[in-house]
Design brief:
By secondary structure, the chain is an alpha+beta fold. Helix content is about 30%, strand content about 30%. It is built from eight helices and eleven strands. Strands 1, 4, 5, 6, 7, 8, 9, 10 and 11 form a nine-stranded antiparallel β-sheet that branches. Strands 2-3 form a two-stranded antiparallel sheet.
Amino acid sequence: MSRREIQDKAPPLSIPLKEVGVVGVKMPVGFAYYNKKPVVVVPSFDVFVDLPAHQKGIHASRHYEIISEVLEKFSGRTYKLENICGNIALELFRRHKSISRARVKARGEAVIGKTTPKTGKLSYEPCTLTASATAFKAPDGSVTLERRVGVGVKGVTACPCAQEILAENVRRKMVRNRFSPKGFRWILKDIPLPTHMQRSLGIVNTEVPSGYEMDALSLVDVVEKSMSASSYGLLKRKDEAELVMKAIGNPLFAEDSIRLMMKHFAETFRELPDSVMVVFKLRSEESIHKHDFVAHRAITLGDIRKELGLKGKTSKASSKG
């Protein structure tokens, strides 16, 4: 007769727990792709299951084994992080017969090779990839899977408020020095005035519906296009001048960037259904304040389309994203 393991015995208090598991498990996987080039990502996994009231504890070693075995299937291959999370969540159900919910989160840093804006030098730019999958067991025993994927990207935002005030100050000085109205209109239009700039973190996190696949790194472009300018690890002097001129020529509040993220997301993922829920966030690390500024919006893709007057899909069908 086999001995009953301690984890399967009755606990001292019969109270169910929502999430019990392991966190911070790091393992190499394979490659993601950005602009048809391989990008290495080493993600960290958090794996949870619910614990029934009649069970003392989970078999924690099984969590690690499942992660290792699932990742072995993806080793050396191109992969989607949210699909790995989904595979782990479904395997948890096969190993833990008594659970009704499993949740897997992954977070990793991808380093993308990009060229600088003026000199064309190669610069390696980090961004954060996140993914999650939650599996639910229905009363009839069937299992449903919900997946999400997201990115975090740093860029530059330039303040339009300070620039507007500086423009008015310049206009007054030019009037006092008897510049012609035509002359100062040309200067204010064609010569961007300075303003303070921020390093800003843009985040997009989206549901991936059943039957759809998404290129998570295409979300990087959504975020970067919504900033005043991109930031770079390597910048020669000509690159710095080009980046600063671009940023002050495209001043944006954090609120502006959030709205642009919504627009670019809707334009990029036209095949996704209206029901998809997306979270947009921008944190501005203020340069002239001792505090930071945050803008945030959680919204369905259908509501974005409605507000922008765009057409979209209401039904779910297979797509490559």
